[in-house]
Design a protein that fits this description.
The structure is a homodimer. Chain A is α/β, with parallel strands linked by helices. Chain A has two domains: 168 residues, Rossmann fold (3-Layer(aba) Sandwich), CATH 3.40.50.1970; 196 residues, Dehydroquinate synthase-like, alpha domain (Up-down Bundle). At the A-B interface, strand 1, strand 2, helix 2, helix 3 and helix 7 of A face strand 1, strand 2, helix 2, helix 3 and helix 7 of B.
């Protein structure tokens, strides 16, 4: 291979090129991006590979984190059978609540340290997976979970992790995020670190066949929020954008049939939609919607996906002035056509999302789920400090946020 | 989280679900897929992170593989400066040819073993990167490179690898593929193993600014072949398909302006196109086009991307009966509209690709690059044994392949 000379940047640096100019209709200059995901295994029956994957990571004894619901459906027993077939020893921790709490992480760490386990395997929804991340983090790095709040506060590597979601939506099995509630402060702490990306993610759509219709509702809106917010993020890049839009498209086409019949084909497509939006948001992050949902969940323990159902359309309206063209792309996927203008297409998409929320029976107003509105100002201050706000396309003060909460009241 | 009971598959297995049926217009049943990529870092100036990335992988002494062309452009010196700034020691191997040869891998392994290096860093095109993979593979697993021909023949882990492409197109920096020529047999051996996926890939579009227009031609067709063949592969899944099509779209929109002006903005979009199609093909594999190109390159040392320019349109025509709808999706991206039928759209796309080949000055007939046609039967037999044929949408005997070669003669 020969290379022409004469155009090499000066030795001092390779950062700029004076003849750079856009000829392409893509005028923005890209900055440096990272794109990282776990090894993904997905498809019907992939749960069977749990033991093989754990062994591949050097496991001799596995620390299983799951929850009583997944256990009652029989999946924990099934997992244990699979691990036994591979000759693997394990301990089991199921003390995990919806919106996992700091004290649960602490108890899990004690159990982990006593166990002598060398691989963490989470089997469950976002709560079980985030609890497992918290346990793996504190067990390996010491201190308390709140020491790691924010971005890039983790120094030492975590034990190898195999994550198996029992539903879709959280995508904690892909992401560099963990969200744990600080019970004393009544906030959800967001911890972002690439050490939190599991080594291997196994997504078996069969696991969704034991969910009720009702249990699918919140995950669907969590996934919608991931697809939408990652697409609008200032950190979005071409590799994340296609996955955001693929996720949105699959979610929109398969949610109604999945809720109507719980057929495996549709559930499977929803798991792929989740993977797609998960690949997008772990690399492009999320925005204001997650800041608002975290503040709401921290204060009132509202299910995360329900918070998004309540707030996502309002957040999209707030963000629209800063990203009308991208919002129109979202709108076109949702309504299936482009209207006379970007603004009209974008608004029609938001309205269709609101109709979908009503149609599937989710609450539309905060007053339907909260005891009163006295904590809205406090929640607004909390949301204004949430790290996800840094990657929202439009800046927002606590007063802007309070207006959104009141608007959704 | 609660889970409804009564729909749990029998303990004996989770493979099938009797109530499975398609309600979605996506009738196919997905099988189990793997989706794995290295950590990707990309954008202008990302080369500066080479040392930090190597250290992150535990490097104390780095084995650099590059080639005289990249060296002449000044990039090897620049890299060495960056490594020195991080206090890293290194050795340098630049004995790499276009279509790297088995004896070059052997010499590289000797140098690696003498060096005491602990991380392999490739800086170059597909040849330098595939040579580096071959060296890392034989150095860690012993024997000769030909012992690993085929899929999944590698047992032991390789040394950590940081790969930095100096052009786009091969995407060896992402893929689980390495292709090395067996000089005695005059064939290109394809080695497929997830151990060949580098740990970290750094794509800095600045490196493309020292390429001449002529040196961009072959990589463009290699990338086009990756986008097209990964999309048509039976192993394609929704996560790979979006990246195949994004890659194709970016390639098609930015190739002409990039060739016309070599402006950094367009070169940058081509690197993203390469990453996109690389993410796709490392997970979905490629097909007949690569089998034909390998046989041609092994016999006559033809540049890999030029082989694709010669053969890809013919391969697309051959495959069309098995994948007309997908070929129409490709055609629509290329010609920018859908014609009256899938077949018409697909054919128009292939014809546009042929016109593009002519327009940029690439050969259209095998007779323009080969001394004579006496080896076509032997090449057809070699191509019929190529592992890439297993993931082609339409089966092909050696006689089918000979017909394609004659058709392109």
């Amino acid at each position: 291979m020969a290379v022409s000379s004469g155009r090499m940047p000066s030795r001092g640096g390779v950062r700029s090129c004076t003849n750079s100019r856009s000829k392409t209709g893509d005028p923005r200059t890209m900055s440096i991006h990272k794109f990282t995901i776990p090894e993904l295994i997905f498809g019907r029956g992939s749960l069977d590979y749990a033991g093989v994957c754990a062994k591949q990571l050097g496991a001799s004894k596995i620390f299983i984190v799951s929850d009583p619901g997944v256990e009652a459906a029989g999946w924990v027993d099934r997992l244990m059978d699979i691990l036994r077939q591979e000759g693997l020893d394990f301990v089991y921790c199921n003390d995990v609540a919806q919106n996992p709490k700091d004290y649960q992480v602490k108890k899990g760490v004690e159990l982990y340290r006593q166990s002598g386990a060398d691989v963490v395997l989470a089997l469950g929804g976002g709560s079980a997976m985030d609890a497992a991340k918290g346990i793996a983090l504190v067990a390996s790095n010491g201190g308390e979970i709140k020491d790691y709040e924010g971005a890039n506060q983790v120094k030492d590597p975590l034990p190898p992790m195999v994550f198996i979601p029992s539903t879709m939506g959280s995508e904690s099995n892909i992401s560099q995020f963990a969200v744990v509630t600080d019970v004393e402060r009544r906030i959800k702490m967001t911890i972002i670190s690439r050490t939190l990306v599991p080594n291997i993610s196994i997504t078996d759509p069969n696991l969704l066949t034991t969910l009720s219709r009702e249990l699918l509702l919140a995950p669907l809106f969590d996934a919608l929020a991931h697809a939408v917010e990652s697409y609008l993020s200032p950190l979005a890049n071409p590799l994340t954008e296609v996955q955001s839009l693929k996720g949105l498209d699959l979610l929109w086409r398969h949610s109604r049939p999945a809720l109507a019949t719980l057929a495996l084909d549709d559930l499977e497509q929803l798991t792929v939609a989740g993977l797609s939006s998960g690949i997008a948001f772990t690399n492009a992050s999320v925005g204001l919607g997650h800041a608002l949902a975290h503040a709401l969940g921290g204060m009132y323990d509202v299910v995360h996906g329900i918070s998004h159902a309540l707030l996502l359309p309002s957040v999209m309206r707030y963000n629209m002035p800063e990203c009308e063209a991208k919002m129109a792309v979202i709108g076109r996927i949702i309504i299936g056509e482009r209207l006379e203008s970007d603004a009209a297409t974008a608004v029609a998409g938001i309205e269709a999302l609101e109709r979908f929320r009503e149609e599937i029976g989710l609450p539309a107003r905060l007053r339907e789920v909260l005891p009163d509105n006295t904590m809205l100002p406090k929640m607004s201050h909390n949301a204004a400090k949430d790290i996800c706000l840094l990657t929202n396309p439009r800046s927002a003060t606590w007063k802007d946020i309070l207006n959104i909460y009141y608007g959704a009241w």
